[in-house]
Amino acid sequence: MISIIIPYHNEGKDFIKATLKSLEDTINVEHEIIIVDDCSGVPLKLNGQVIRHEKNKGVGAAFDTGVKRAKYDRLFLIGSDVRFI
Q: Which pLDDT tens digit goes with each residue over 52-85?
């Protein structure tokens, strides 16, 4: 069981969708995905758990927010443009 935390800020929906697809195609353990939208110009809307900062706080704060909301002890922190092969 693992909590995957992904900060997001104006990267574009295609990047995060590709990252999510890559994760779903690769991860074979029970997991949750937490995306923290760090006050993007256009709020990110996806199925799943998206937490939005009302003010831009930076990537470190976005990771902290995700960690605080994680339900599992094992954490995997990645960028929104990461791909797994």
A: 999 999 999 999 999 999 999 999 999 988 888 7
Listed in sequence order, the residues at least 6 apart from 48 whose beta carbon sits closer than 8 Å to its beta carbon are 20, 33, 35
From residue 78, how far is each of 57, 61, 75 by CA, in Å?
Answer: 17, 14, 10
Domain range annotation of the chain = 2-30+44-77
pLDDT at 47 over 80: no
Q: pTM for the whole thing? A: 0.90
Separation of alpha carbons 24 and 44, rounded Å = 19
Distance of CA 64 to the CA centre of its chain: 12
Residue 82 · residue 4 · CB < 8 Å: no
